[in-house]
Amino acid sequence: MINPNAPAKLSETCESGTQITYDAGAIDQIPSLIGDRQYCVVICGGPFFAALTDTLAGNSHPPVIVIDDVVPNPDFALLATQAARFASLPVQPEVILALGGGSVIDTAKVLASANGGFANVETFLVSNTGEENLTAIPIIAVPTTAGTGSEVTCWATVWDNSSKKKYSLNRPALYPEHAVIDPELMLGKSRALTISTGLDALSHALESIWNVNASEASARCAVNAALEILEVLPMLVEDPGSLELRARMAGASLMSGMAFSKTKTAIAHSISWPISLHHNVIHGIACSFTLPIVLKSMAGDEGLCGKSLKQIFGEDLSSAPRQMTDFLTSLGVSTHPKDHGVSPEEWVGIVDQAFMGGRGLNFIGT
Q1: Engineering a disulfide at 98: which of 18, 108, 229, 292 sits with its beta carbon 3.0 to 4.6 angstroms away?
Q2: What is the DSSP-derived secondary structure letter of residue 46?
């Protein structure tokens, strides 16, 4: 298991087969990971990622295509145009290099699956049929934020904004072949992005604890991740240029990703999706402001969940909701739905609906 307090240097293989390299300067290893394979680069726009792509191409060989128009919350319409550009190549990539946050890595997973066009992926998402028509091009995932854990999971979140629906592309074949975590790439991230991605990682950790799929192994990862995030995130917000703190957050996010890769998420995430869709609340905020409410319902648990939460919040779990509320408030995050644009009437409907979804059914509470 990763020790987040150790120097940021690690190389190991997950149970899924994903090879993990966690080290400051690890991005220098990417040319050797690509080798002589034809590759695609998936990035957000902007000079930082453009310069990074140019440097990698200079140290390796040029990519056959750069998909550089990724936006938060990958949507059907944009993914269709990106998949069409990908499919039109005379030479198909043998590996996809995803450089960025969760939306970039999720987009890479869609392109890896598309097999000639987004229609194949859409059919699979909407009808849960046609997986035999999908491909699984290998992915090298290089996260530049500490939060989503997508570099060690086999699913991607995909949005259909036109119909206000969210889907999960869930295929074991989509575990990246390599996850390269380089905390130097996370330097310079804004306060808002640092907070939202950090809270996403915290939510992943806690969601994997109050989960029907939790195990001793996933709980150990989750507890260590949550403890580290609760300690490090407030310090990092005040000292965003600290490589040591960035490295610790990167390690905590990775542990959180490994935890929920075994369990998936639960009720807080199920509640978050309509709030993000209808009120444009950033995902990391939408999935974390409800954590105190969920913790309140876990106060009497005497099983693995209660045992794990006590390791994080202390023996008196009745104090955990207040601890979490104070933590979120200190970061400028309100725990009241109305402050995120949700009326009391809408809130009741969102919560009722959330319990009916797949992630809601993962929740051990009621």
Answers
A1: 108
A2: S
Instruction: List all residues 6 or more positions away from 89 whose beta carbon is below 8 Å from its beta carbon.
Output: 64, 65
Q: Using the Cα atoms of residue 330, residue 312, residue 229 and residue 139 in order, give the sign of their dihedral.
A: negative
In the chain, what are the helix, strand and coil shares in percent, each to the nearest 5? 55, 15, 35
Q: How far apart are CA 237 and CA 243, in angstroms?
A: 12
Give me the pLDDT at residue 39, please.
97
How many other CB atoms are found less than 10 A from the CB of residue 297?
15
Cβ-count burial 193-202 (b if 16+ within 10 Å, e if not): bbbbbbbbbb
Looking at residue 17, its amino acid is G
The radius of gyration computed from the CA coordinates of the chain, to the nearest angstrom, equals: 20
8 Å CB contact between 203 and 293: no
- 8 A C-beta contact, residue 49 and residue 33: no
Predicted pLDDT at 366: 80
For 247, counting Cβ atoms within 10 Å of its Cβ (0-12 exposed, 13-18 middle, 19+ buried), the class is buried
* pTM, to two decimals: 0.93
Vertex 241: Cα angle to 238 and 245 (nearest 5):
75
DSSP characters for 224-273?
A: HHHHHHHHHHHHHHH-TT-HHHHHHHHHHHHHHHHHHHHH---HHHHHHH
What is the reported pLDDT for 4? Answer: 43
pLDDT average per 10 residues of sequence, the chain (366 residues): 46 78 95 97 94 91 96 95 96 96 97 96 96 97 95 95 91 96 96 98 98 97 98 98 97 96 95 94 97 95 96 97 98 98 96 91 92
Between CA 352 and CA 65 the distance in angstroms is 44
Cβ atoms 296, 285 nearer than 8 A: no
pLDDT at 3: 47
Q: What pLDDT score does 63 carry? A: 96
Residue 13's pLDDT is 67
Domains with residue ranges and CATH for the chain: 26-181 (3.40.50.1970), 191-361 (1.20.1090.10)
